[in-house]
Structures
1.
Amino acid sequence: MNESRSTATASEIRDLFDRIAPVYDQLNNWLSLGQHWVWKLMAIKWSCVGSGSICLDLCCGSGDLAQLLARQVGVTGRVYGVDFSPAQLAIAKARVSQLYPPLPISWVEADALNLPFEDNYFDGATMGYGLRNVTDIPLCLREIYRTLKPGAKAAILDFNRPQQLPMRAFQEWYLENIVVPRAKALGLTEEYAYIAPSLERFPTGSQQVGLALKAGFASATHYPIAAGMMGVLVVSKA
């Protein structure tokens, strides 16, 4: 799970993810009760990529979503896992290097706001818990739009604020009483305490749809999942 803090610089956010890299996967599995795998598979399904596709996994972190995407596109495809955290990318590379047969993934250290790819390059894209982390969400969406081929889709998974008050209250309780104490036990209180305030600043699903349409996408739909505590923004380029 990756954040967007208006008061944080890009270098500060990168440093944060470098620090949490060693326990990132462990915490994701524990805090989501393993459900993050299901949500990531849903994002891949909604990205509509198939065998032979050239795909982008933006803000790839330690690479689990990129690995799932690589299995989807197969040996004739290619996945570019992009992140600006060298510590996260080092873990992603190490994990994939142990796999046989090798997966078709290229790891790229780059800024999500200035992607080193040509226009109309990708057949599809995914992004898991990264949109909250960028310092300029509209620019990030424009970069995804720019690098997708006409007709391609992107699926962007992230936290969501439930519309129903009981679920919103539960989400707030869970973050405060489960997530932060667990992170504190690992010496990462500050690094994970950011999730709740970042969620308050994060655009709602309908706002994300509006931003995507302004970025140029022909269509955009936000799907609440996990009782509304998570969401997937699916966008399509004409």
2.
Amino acid sequence: MTIANPPTPVQTIEYPESDGQPMAENTKQFEWIVTLEGGLAAQFASDPNVFVAGDLFWYPVEGRNDIRVAPDVLVVFGRPMGHRGRYLQWAEENIAPQVVFEIWSPGNTTKDYTNKYRFYNKYGVQEYYLFDPDRKELLGWLRRGDDLVEIEFMNDWVSPRLGMRFEWDGDELKLYHPNGERFKTYVELAQSVEAERVRAEAERARAETERARAERLAAQLRARGIEPEA
């Protein structure tokens, strides 16, 4: 009698969601990441088929958990918005992020970013932007054919996929949405909300004062036997 060997168990490959490293090394880098991710998420909030994320592992090759990168910000057109622990490209109709951003970290080296460029170039990124807030330097690459080619002039550059504009105002980099509104930091957004609340309160107070004045005038007219106009 032949005794069959038991089937070899299939090894499950894990795709970690974190490498234990912090999202940013300093407050300046963190502020830029949050501003970019939040601004782009707000810009595409009405489009259910645009996914925006920050510091999320992207695995482009099934079965290879050693091939991965975590862009500071990534944008994927053609994939639904929603929460993910990592971006498994083969589970996302094999759509690679089209746009990625990196904010230069003091703890990284030129070699680190060279390796990232090679990764993005190999795995199909269409636009790659690298900003160093300390050196006030902005670099960008746009896919032409099979390669990401450096953009010669970044001042007033408009992203083909995002529609956002990059502008240097002196030594300050400003980002603008397609509608001309500037990307705002979390603090600036909070201040805008507070300013709008104060304005709305003032408008309500003005309307209430006007209503009370009209009622007093109507009462005075009635007291004189005059019916106020409607």
3.
Amino acid sequence: MSATPSLKASSNDKAGMKPFSTDEERVERAELIRILRETPPETLLAMSEMQTVEAFHRVAQSVPFYQQMLSSNGVDPSTVTDIQSYCAQAPILDKHNTFAAHSISELCTGGNLDDIRTLLTSSGHSGVFSFGVNTKDNLQRSAKSIDMGLQYLFDVDNRATVLINCLPMGVKVNTTATFLAETSVRDDMVFAIVKKFSEEFDQVILVGEGSFIKKIIEDGAEQHGIDWPSLRVHLITGEEGIAENYRTYIAKLLGIDDITAEGGKLVGSSMGVAELDLNIFHETRESIEIRRLAHQDEKLRKALFGGDVDFCPMFFAYYPQRCYVEEMPRGDGHNELVISMLSEEMKIPLLRYKSGDIGRIMTYDHVVDTLREHGYDLKPDLQLPFVAVYGRGKSLDTPQGHLFPEAVKEALYADHDIAAAITGNFHLTDGGDGGQLAVQLRRGFDKPAEAEARLLKHLASYSSVTPEVTFGPYETFGHAMEVDYERKFSYV
């Protein structure tokens, strides 16, 4: 594939390509980004706390199930007057005491489904389905938030952009600032769009689950002749966290020399919860740089993420005017994230909702101070708070200790020969002192020479557990998903 106009500096160079957004929308995004750059972190936090208390009273007056919940917990809404009383009295919500215990109408503002236009189910991975519903107004609000992030990260107001959503069926990316293609996990559709449309746009953004994105980049080059390094292609992974070594491996395939270069191609990640929002937390170039520094610097990693952490959790920024985030001890030494969504447009407004993810909240100043203490002069552009997300805390418990899937992911992608030969799927089971680790090979690929020993050598950098390793052919891998890339994979 020849070099394309996607390498041009601005969509203004595109003959006949009109901006996707109005001048008013572009000005509004620029103003919001300016505010986030200039507003002190403590001011953003104070505003978030005030909005959270306001959201509590709004929900307490308008949502039937929440009124029942407050009554059964003996909470008088009039006594919740500040963030301290909110955190002390507002009940903790989860899938079980909301979606499993109430009708959808009871969960909705006004006790009805009026004005709902779309709904999204969760993955069902936990055994209980939860649902996100959206009104027209909420879809517009979500689009504004996503478009602001796309403008900040990718300059979509000045570069004609095609965004290819290859997340599993039903997961929508609400954007009005880009040309949008939705393929789900049909790789043939993705290849067709990239080959036909990339020459018409300044840049391409691929949004999908990490293992599927890996397949797209590898198969696109090997089987479809797509010259990824010649294209301005960005990636945003979702559904689950990625290893930092995964980012390095994929960046190499895209021809990215400096992963955090300002204005360069980006391999990033975001995190959403179906019943809350698609994009609650997301990476920035600075958060990626910080995570990569911590990946290499053990002292910085332990200072930011904990003394017993041998691999980096995901590290995201978030907007405190959209959600208020807390940590709550869950009894096993870990803290679980609790999220309150603050938008007035949400039809199912969930407050103090447990996402099921282990996490740690960090203020902007704490992160900057910790970096400085370890010799890094780095101040993120947006003065936002950060959250470290460690996953769900699932591990294989062995006589040698806990083996976490996140450690295995780092080890698999540390060796690019091994990374190129696997799908990214693996499964941990009991057996022996260190358990069993079965890794799935790509279709038609053999394992590299001495792959087991090489993998264990890398794994030793991220875990004290030494499992017995086997590499299985694609077709006979015993733990394959029921529908490729449609369901979350169970690593343990």
